Every structure is written in C-alpha cells, then in structure tokens.
C-alpha cells in the first residue's frame, strides 16, 4: 500500500457512492466520520477499499498486520465508522500496489 497520498474524495462521498447513506442523512453522520481520511492505496483496483486500523476494532475478516494494527476490507467496518463505532485510529485506502510474477524483480534489476 501507498500510505501518504490523501485523496480529495471524502468518507461521506464513499458512503453515498456505496449507497450506505442517503444525502439527507449526512447531517447525522458523526463528526469523526465526516473527517475520516481517505488515502490512495495504489494504482491497482482503485475502486476497492481497505481500512488500516488500530486493534480496538476486530471482525472475522480483520487481518492482524502487527501487534496493534489490523487491516479490514469489508463493508462492516465502513458501516461501523459511519455509526461512530469504528476503531479509534484508522485510515481508508483505495486501491493497492501489486506486482505480477517476476515483475518486481525485473523492475529492481532495471
């Protein structure tokens, strides 16, 4: 993942796009959800979202990345964040960086 490229897209934009929220419900969105940061995760599958977050939120689909950081890529965490019930620390990544077989080795050698 690329972790340092904020997007102009907002979390409310994501909720509206996914039809998880009606425009008239935006006013009831918790302030933390309105300010939730969206980052570019990489150039592959930019329509796919991942949430990198603290381990105070866990679901069956959460994958531990380190002792206190997890990755979750399901709508459950997006819904939890929109209700103010998500992790204390988190960022959403759209897309990821990936390489095909042998591609990374070729790029490194050139």
UniProtKB/TrEMBL annotation:
Pfam families: DUF179 (PF02622). InterPro entries: AlgH-like. Belongs to the UPF0301 (AlgH) family. It comes from Rhizobium fredii. This is YqgE/AlgH family protein. It comes from the Bacteria. The gene is SMc00019. GO terms for cellular component: cytosol. Gene3D superfamilies: VC0467-like.
């Amino acid at each position: 993942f690329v972790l340092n490229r904020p997007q102009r897209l907002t979390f409310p934009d994501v909720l509206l796009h996914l039809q998880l929220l009606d425009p008239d419900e935006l006013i009831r969105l918790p302030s933390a959800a309105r300010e939730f940061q969206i980052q570019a995760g990489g150039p592959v599958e930019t329509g796919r979202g991942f949430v990198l977050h603290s381990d105070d939120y866990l679901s069956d689909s959460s994958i531990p990345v380190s002792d206190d950081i997890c990755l979750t890529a399901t709508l459950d965490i997006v819904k939890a964040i929109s209700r103010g019930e998500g992790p204390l620390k988190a960022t959403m990544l759209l897309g990821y960086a990936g390489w095909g077989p042998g591609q990374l080795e070729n790029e490194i050698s050139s």
